[in-house]
From TrEMBL:
Stated name of the protein: FAD-dependent oxidoreductase
Ranges where the FAD dependent oxidoreductase domain occurs: 2-346
Cofactor(s) listed: FAD
The UniProt record lists the keyword Cell membrane: no
Species whose genome carries this gene: Chlorogloeopsis fritschii PCC 6912
InterPro entries attached to this UniProt entry: FAD-dep_OxRdtase, FAD/NAD-bd_sf, MTOX
Molecular function terms from GO: flavin adenine dinucleotide binding; sarcosine oxidase activity
Domain of life of the organism encoding this protein: Bacteria
UniProt keyword Oxidoreductase present: yes
One Pfam family here: DAO
Record key words, sorted: FAD, Flavoprotein, Oxidoreductase
Amino acid sequence: MKVTVVGAGIIGLSAAWALCREGHQVTVYEQGTLPNSLGSSVDQHRLIRFPYGRKLGYTRMVFDAYRAWEQLWADIGKQLYAPTGTLVLASATESWASDSATTLEQLGIGVRWLNAEQLQAAFPLLMADGVESAFYLDSGDVLLAEKIIAAMAEYLSHKGVILHTQTQVRDIDPDRSRIVLAGAIADADTLVIAAGAWVTRLLPDFGKRVTPSRQVVVYVEPPVETKAQWLNAPMILDIDPECGFYLVPPVLGTDLKIGDHRFTLTGNPDRDRTAGEAEAQQIYKQLERRIKDFNRYQLKSACTCFYTVAPEEHFIVEPLGNSWVMSGFSGHGFKFGPLLGLRLAEAIAHRCTPTFLSQWAAGEP
């Protein structure tokens, strides 16, 4: 079968990888370079971890996601991740941590609860003030996102997948699996639309279902004497409805990164790409209440990326005419990329129904 994929982020490349494995002839179109620094998938790192609040479907899906990553590592011949473990902190007003622990328990995954004294002893770089509850999991890994995208592109090219970069798709016809380029038309047997925050440019009606969300992340330089400790630190999910953040430790030559859990639900992915000083400082200063000797941590840089958010953060994988749309991954899609690609390939091969795939992707247990 001849397949066209629009978008070369983790979702588009995972679809191309899985379909190539099935023996299909795959062509990928990417509007930027590859990796595309403006894409949602391209940054130093992304996270894979089990805690997911009350969302049993997505929590269970993480088991299969790990297996899919193992298949990808075997194919590309390298493992681009670092195990870190997961530390979840929560304020008194936030139930996400306890909900996550309950869901994990249903799946046979135990967590190690920590009181303030235990938290301080186990993680001396942190301050336990204001933490109502905390738990630790041995599982949890940092995925080296940009390196993964580059490695996948190289592998796919060697396997015969045609990668068109800096090639903008002007229009699509989902019923005909057709794309319109500058001065050319390309037809296929099926079309996969994985255009990230630009999906509404190609499918305007999709603007009623997903919202681009401009997110700012900052990179921080820790004090020299703490660097060895940070290299062995877990990812940290600090859950607070007013000022929660996530922290990625500086593994394998990457920088210590801080991001805000909350969605902005604003911004245009073709503009608004520069992180302002004030918004960078706002995220950076969230560390002040949680990290010891905060004033010795230097703000190195900041950047933006765009998520595409659907209601309830449910993923959208569904047929549209003779095509497929993959959207609404809300900043959580990277960890599931290879798995989503494999499941899409199964649906295209009629080994599962479109209805089943769409419900599964939406996290329905």
